[in-house]
Task: structure prediction
Amino acid sequence: MWRDVTGIRKEWLSKEGAQRAGWIGVACLSVMLSVMLVACDARGTSEDGAAGSTKAAAAAANASGAQTQKVSSADSAAAVPAGGQTRAQVFESVRKMTAVGKQLFFDPSLSGSGKLACASCHSPQHAFGPPNALSVQLGGHDMRQQGLRAAPNIKYLQNVPAFTEHYHDSDDEGDESVDAGPTGGLMWDGRVNSAHAQARFPLTSSFEMGSNPRKVAAAVKAAPYADQFRYAFGQHVFDSDDATFKAVLQALEVFEQTPELFYPYSSKYDAYLAGKAQLTKAEMHGLQLFNDEKKGNCASCHLSQRALDGAPPAFTDFGLIAIGVPRNRALPANRDSHFYDLGACGPERTDLKGRDEYCGIFRTPTLRNVALRKTFFHNGIYHSLEDVVRFYAQRDTNPEKFYPVVKGKVQKFDDLPKKYWANLNTDPPFDRKPGDKPAMDESEIKDVVAFLKTLTDGYQPDAPEQHADAHIVSSK
Ligand code: HEC
Ligand code: HEC
Result:
């Protein structure tokens, strides 16, 4: 696996110059400014003081969507002091941190085994998600350990709000008085509130990178980019392992906010929303089914419309929801029949332990770039989008297709103890019973999948395959 990484790494690092040139200065300036303010904050506050970070990230996202562009030119920006620094200084500082953050992201020497980089599980060619079809990636000291969960794509995380038990958003339903319930936070269970706090987990987890602050600091000091690192963070960054480790986390966070890599909004669907592309008949039908409250009803959780402020859709409302994903019996932890990954109520997450109403809930992931994945749901149980959409359409009409059948009886919701079943979602398409007609038939499932494929970044209007379908439907 590490050979892959070094390959990717070389290729990516060599692109750096080109990428830098490609940056749209004006949009990035505000993004960087926000990131920098966060970075400055992070130094003074605790690791988890993330609410501000999320807000700043949101501001950054808006700026990148160019909806709320306030900065008019780099020159005028340079005159505005921000947290004691001019924007030009902030720009320069973020540029240095981004460059070093990228090196760190691809560096397997930070791991205990020396073989695993962030990019091993979050591959740039796969929307920063897993490059293979394993349910759970391999890691740890011997590269054979497995955790509980599928590696998510880490694009489009910039707008994830800090975790809250009661979420009120004027964009959702247009009514701020609606309590959308538990929402936000990073990881499948929402247990972390910022990317710099997050990065500590894979670096130190025994089944992922299996390292520690001392080893990470030593690796950075010995790395070819050690000088670059000192240049970005100042003379004293190598004074203590703790200072070095914190700087590593910060550089990774800043890198993960690079707009053109992590939130380019360059899918066919984005082009369609902008009136610059047409969906095929199948894609358009899939979109309708996705939005139709009586059919897929997908958009009720995976938002597909622009927000009221014009921001592009995130394809998630960031809500934590229980949808009763079947138990993945291939996972080592699940060999113990008493073990359950209950999401927000534990055992990975500990602060909501004993809160029964949080058992079985996981954060709704974005569906942007989902077609680049080969593994779906928190436990990686499915490996094709058809299977996922079929689960939605038939979970309640044909449960025997998804859950084990023992002595003629379907063991429905086999990954959630019965006492938590009240937490399960029963909105359409989950509002049916055996014998009812499924919410969607096989041809409709195919069309939803065709639509999901329009959410992949990097759409090129002139690519030949885009003209292959004769049945073009206009966006108007
Ligand atoms: C062995 C595979 C593996 C490696 C290596 C790895 N990750 Fe992850 N990453 C995961 C898994 C699995 C999760 C989900 C964990 C959970 O929900 O409990 C995750 C979650 C994340 C998230 C949160 C995503 C979300 O949707 O909330 C971020 C950000 C992230 N990783 C960044 C990193 C960074 C930065 C590194 C390197 C320091 C890294 N990862 C290394 C597997 C990996
Ligand atoms: C009630 C809210 C809700 C509705 C409605 C909903 N989803 Fe989801 N979706 C979720 C949640 C929550 C998850 C993560 C569940 C888990 O892993 O336990 C998810 C996960 C997924 C995934 C896996 C993504 C990944 O990265 O692993 C896909 C694909 C998906 N949904 C597509 C759809 C489609 C298509 C529809 C409509 C047919 C739909 N969803 C309807 C909440 C919802």
Notes: The beta strands are 81-82, 85-86, 138-139, 145-146, 279-280, 320-321, 362-363, 405-406, 409-410, 472-473. The domain at 2-262 is CATH 1.10.760.10 (Cytochrome Bc1 Complex; Chain D, domain 2). The chain has two domains: 2-262, 268-473.
